[in-house]
Specification:
- Strands 1-4-3-2-5 form a 5-stranded antiparallel β-sheet, covered by helices on one side.
- The termini are far apart.
- It has helices at residues 11-16, 50-63, 80-91, 98-119, and strands at 7-8, 23-30, 33-38, 41-47, 73-78.
- It is of the alpha+beta class and 121 residues long.
- The radius of gyration is 13 Å and the shape is globular.
- It has one domain (7-114).
């Protein structure tokens, strides 16, 4: 992850194309940055840059997860709809002012989705 921009895998499109209530993932942090993984494949790679860590932090917030300590990983479980919003957040260009309005809306939607899925039991 030497690139300064967050990388989104094409595998994400494949994963979210079939709606699912629960997708098991893993959030990992290493000396290069933070990655969101599914079945050993990287979905999102956020580099250790200012923008990359903003993406990582907001993505984790959307997923309702905490960023793991350096060298560790955290299990994450989310619906494909929630994953779509988290990936959209990671893809935002935080150097542009317009991204903050989109971020606010996507975080609200993610919060509503997390609340709805836990209330539906």
């Amino acid at each position: 992850m030497s690139d300064a921009r967050t990388k989104i895998s094409e595998y994400v499109d494949e994963l979210i194309s079939v709606p699912r209530a629960h997708v098991r993932m893993e959030m990992r942090q290493d000396e290069k940055g933070l990655s969101l993984m599914h079945d050993g494949r990287a979905l999102v790679e956020c580099p250790l840059t200012r923008e990359g860590m903003m993406s990582a932090g907001f993505m984790a917030q959307a997923l309702g997860a905490k960023i793991p300590p350096l060298g560790e990983s955290t299990p994450v479980r989310a619906s494909t709809g929630l994953l779509f919003r988290a990936v959209s957040i990671a893809a935002l260009d935080y150097t542009k002012e317009e991204s903050m309005a989109l971020l606010e809306r996507l975080l609200e939607e993610a919060d509503e989705q997390r609340g709805a899925s836990s209330d539906a039991v």
